[in-house]
Design goal:
Arc Repressor Mutant, subunit A; DUF1403 family protein; mainly alpha; 2% strand; globular; 3-stranded antiparallel sheet; DUF1403
């Protein structure tokens, strides 16, 4: 069940840190923020109430997605980076968001096999955020995603996975997508992190979004009991009837992730408005291409090629954008610098 409250999510305000906080608070009703339970308060709530709250949170997020803002690409890719950092940590890796960003952005496209296991996880989440939602659960895409998550595969495994996902997608109840997708991944021995990827893809398809929004990946490390894991592994479509405690935790995590995504959208909207305000002042060649790329991706490096601009010219452009407060330098390094909203 998905609720779609009539919310005004458009933020108009001054480009200050305080305004960003105010915008994110205004984007979601106070009652909804209070209603989303944390991990410590789940015990006293029933799964139906949490499902209603999760539906309201996804409804609020749906309003943001359907605005199709120019900065939506950067928003989704920033969420993909967060999801990759969490899933990498869950896999026992030490790379944080900065290290993951470096692994992908500082590697030539022809050398992507050298991004490392954690970098490959980021590629998987970036694929979720960038590919059309309708293409995410095809055999071709799932083969690539399995490789990026480090799983061996064969045609039979992929075919079975696609069939199971199609059965889940054809069922009733959006909230069953969360527990069902993770149960399917675990049933095939693919792990919970991949299950969250599948859940986000299924949610986007169910709601008719053009692109998926990485949500549950940022909550992939949410703990589950051994009993819950055994229940999921033994059932193709874990539901609220067969795994209520597991469902409560996952639905609450989805609701918190949706609110976090809405808050990030308000922050990036403020930053994009600043970038678009100063864009007419830029005189560098291909500056329009640079602006569009900043709005569509998490970050870019100063060594990329834009319309024939030299490395020196691009660095001057980025220095100007930083000076104007329109872009941030994200690496903190004097060389191999990375820029983004």
């Amino acid at each position: 069940m998905i609720l779609r409250p009539e919310l005004s999510l458009r933020y108009h305000g001054t480009p200050t840190g305080e305004a960003s906080v105010a915008a994110s608070k205004a984007a979601v009703p106070a009652w909804l923020r209070r209603a989303v339970p944390d991990a410590q308060s789940l015990a006293g709530k029933n799964v139906e109430d949490i499902a209603l709250v999760a539906g309201a949170a996804i409804g609020a997020l749906d309003a943001v997605v359907r605005r199709q803002e120019r900065w939506a690409g950067a928003w989704r890719q920033r969420l993909a980076l967060s999801a990759a950092a969490v899933t990498a940590k869950q896999a026992g890796r030490v790379e944080d968001e900065n290290a993951l960003r470096d692994a992908v952005l500082l590697t030539r496209p022809s050398d992507f096999l050298s991004v490392g296991p954690a970098g490959s996880m980021l590629l998987a989440w970036r694929r979720l955020a960038a590919r059309p939602a309708e293409d995410l659960l095809t055999k071709k895409t799932l083969v690539a995603v399995l490789e990026e998550f480090g799983f061996a595969h064969d045609d039979e495994v992929v075919s079975d996975l696609v069939e199971d996902l199609q059965q889940l997608a054809a069922g009733d109840g959006t909230m069953r997508i969360v527990t069902g997708a993770i149960a399917i991944a675990e049933r095939h021995g693919l792990g919970r992190a991949l299950g969250t990827w599948l859940a986000d893809a299924l949610l986007a398809q169910r709601l008719g979004w053009a692109h998926a929004v990485p949500l549950l990946g940022s909550k992939a490390a949410l703990g589950t009991s051994a009993r819950s894991r055994r229940s999921a592994a033994g059932s193709l479509a874990t539901s609220i009837e067969t795994g209520p405690e597991r469902a409560k935790g996952l639905l609450a995590a989805q609701a918190r992730a949706a609110l976090r995504a809405i808050d990030l959208s308000a922050e990036l909207e403020r930053r994009s408005e600043r970038l678009l305000a100063v864009a007419p002042k830029l005189r560098a060649r291909a500056s329009d291409l640079v602006v569009e790329r900043l709005l569509s991706d998490d970050a870019i490096v100063a060594s990329e090629k834009f319309g024939g601009m030299s490395d020196r010219g691009l660095r001057r452009l980025f220095d100007r954008l930083v000076e104007l407060g329109a872009v941030r330098e994200l690496s903190g390094r004097p060389t191999f610098r990375i820029y983004g909203l």
